[in-house]
Amino acid sequence: MDLRSSMLGLRADLATREPPPTGPLPQPVPAYYNPAQPWASAPQGPVDLAVVSERTSLDADDDEDDADEDEDDEERGKAPKGAGHHGGCRGDGSGHGSKPRSSPLASHALWTVVAMAVLWPVAAPHLGPPVSEASAAQLLVGPELGVYFMAAVVAVFGLYALVGTWVGNPRGLMVLGALAVLGAVLVSSVDVTRTRIGDELWRPTTVAEARSDDQWLNVGAGTLDLTALPAELGPGGSVDVAVRVDVGSLVLVIPEDARVHVVSEVTAGAIGVGSVAPDGDFVAGLGLAHEETFDPSKPVRSSGPAEETERRDGAGRDELPVINVHASSRAGTVEVRYDQAGN
Question: Is residue 248 classed as helix, strand or coil in its secondary structure?
Fold first, then answer.
């Protein structure tokens, strides 16, 4: 080493006024913190204390929430939240220890009712009369035997709802039970097997047809045409006719050459009347009952031994054919016309 030259260079360096040269700046090193890895096995490197403190506070809050949930579960008689984690896996294979979802009891109840609806008509022919003589519709929804089947359906839904208080999922059973009760009330009050819906026209031409009890309709519009009866009755003849439309409209077409006595009964709706009505056409309300007699609107022709004479109402009142009509409706209208065109 040349000490002489080094000393001369040092004197020159001390005499200068420039700042000393700086070395290379250290590069930033990323902070390390892995919460899932214990400190004993953490690799060498700097630790970000801000991350550590944040993670520590979050863990403390989670522990407090878990403790509160465990206390609530213990009060309800359930297992604590963390108890299932030691079991290894859940029933659905997700690796958690929570309780598996229970099956809905409403679907089981429906399948039970379907099985009953299939087996009851199959077993009925082997039980003897009157069950063996009834059709499948009468067994299920008939006014006599269908009531027992609907009562069994209500009992099935009630039994499943009772079981659902301990096991299973009872959701939907209350709705199905309410529908079953309504169905039982309907079957017990109405003959569902003979339900008639639509439009119907009755035009009896004989006394036997006029006295028939087949002139009724459940829902729809019914028309009773009586214009062909006077020719069948003859002078002084009479006939009683009954017609019913439960829900809808009923039109009575009466003849112009006969006396027609009409008794109308409507539970809720309107009745077409003569000039005595306040509005001139209909009286509307609840529990209506109206009685009216319609005399002939044209002369009545009768054949004598010498010639054909014309008689008005007062001239031959006892020789007029008389038609007594009883019309009823639960919810609808009853109207009287002289022809089907509405006059």
Answer: strand
DSSP secondary structure letter of residue 218: E
Give the Cα separation of 140 and 150 in Å (integer): 7
Give the pLDDT confidence of 252-277 residue by residue, as tens digits.
Answer: 999 888 899 999 999 999 998 764 33
DSSP assignments along 26-45, one per residue: PPP------TTS-GGGPPSS
Q: Are residues 201 and 190 in the same domain?
A: no
How many domains are there within the chain? 2
List C-alpha distances in Å: 170 to 153, 163, 180, 214. Answer: 16, 8, 16, 46
Degrees (nearest 5) of the Cα angle 223, 230, 307? 150
Instruction: Please name every residue paired with 260 in a beta bridge, in sequence order, or none if there are none.
Output: 294, 323
Residue finishing a domain among 159, 194, 229: 194
Tokens found for residue 307: 């010639």
- Say yes or no: 246 and 264 in one domain: yes
Q: For 162-221, how does the pLDDT look when each residue is reduced to its tens digit (9 = 90+)? A: 988 888 888 888 999 899 999 888 888 877 777 788 899 999 999 899 998 889 888 899
Tell if the pTM clears 0.90, that is, is over it.
Answer: no
Structural contact between residues 320 and 230, judged by C-beta atoms closer than 8 angstroms: no
The span from the CA of 69 to the CA of 180, in Å, is 41
The shares of helix, strand and coil residues in the chain, as percent rounded to the nearest 5, are 40, 25, 40
The reply to whether 168 and 154 lie within a common domain is yes
Q: Are residues 213 and 322 in the same domain?
A: yes
Give CA angle at 81 (77, 85), nearest 5°. 125
As beta bridge partners, residue 197 has 219
- Per the domain annotation, does 43 fall within a domain? no
Is 180 strand, coil or helix? helix
Pair (123, 253) in one structural domain: no
Print the domain residue range for 154.
105-194
